[in-house]
Amino acid sequence: MHHLGSRPRIASKFLFALVATVASSLVLSGCAINLLLPDDGNTRAQKSEVTVQVLYAAGPTGGQSAQKIPVRPSPDGKFTLDVSEDEVSGVGDMIRAASWNAVMVATMLTGASLANEYRFELSGRADGPSAGGLTTVAVLSLFLGDDILDGVSMTGTINPTGTIGPVDGIPQKMQGGIDPGKFTKTLIPAGQRSDTDNEGSPVAFVPLGQPGGRESSHVSDLSEAYR
């Protein structure tokens, strides 16, 4: 996710009627979270709202921004996803697509009803798919009724298979979580162990946070990330 700035909140709403049925027997490769809930297609959210701290890259370092996701049953039985921004055209197409993808993957994994209204509230000017994995974990927590652990954040895209995909800017994002002292652990996509910083110098992720007692952990799919 790339962060660019902030102003008065403007909501953009997308309303789509359900045009396809998700087969209850669908299994996403690499994930076992679907075993935790009854696969009856009627699962309702156990919580009404969740907030996660999204890591972003901005110049030589990075930062964190709260993303609030409320959900409620749809009164008309239709699926609604509302992306709320506080900057005109502040949220880019890749973030919108990642939000849709997160809800679809979480729905397939849990067997949840699609007749829900979701709202994604983000601040500033930002784009990129790298918060997709974290967003999917957040939506899953609404249905499973779990709290997101304090001190843990994550970067990585979400694939339709439930696997966590690679991202860029990990050194900056990790530093953006380390500098405020808020996070003790950052989850990063499996297979990504180093990258270059803004100066082009190589940075190994595991040692990056060690001087401050911070930890990085590799995750390959939602099952690993969620647990």
The SSE string, one letter per element, is EEEEEHEEHEEEHEEEHEH
Q: How many helix segments?
A: 5
User: Mean of the pLDDT scores?
Assistant: 78
Query: Helix share of residues?
Result: 10-25%
Q: What is the terminal separation in angstroms?
A: 23 Å
How would you describe the shape?
globular
Structural class: alpha/beta
- Strand % is 25-35%
Would you report the number of β strands? 14
The poorly predicted ranges are: 3-30
* Major sheet strand order: 2-5-6-4-3
What do you see in this structure?
The chain is of the alpha/beta class. Helices cover 22% and strands 31% of the residues. The protein contains five helices and 14 strands. It has helices at 93-110, 132-144, 170-178, 205-208, 222-226; strands at residues 2-3, 10-16, 49-58, 61-73, 79-85, 116-122, 126-127, 152-154, 157-158, 164-165, 185-189, 194-196, 202-204, 215-219. The strands form five sheets. Strands 2-5-6-4-3 form a five-stranded mixed β-sheet. Strands 8-11-14 form a three-stranded parallel β-sheet. The chain has a two-stranded antiparallel sheet with strand order 1-7. α1 (93-110) runs parallel beside α2 (132-144).
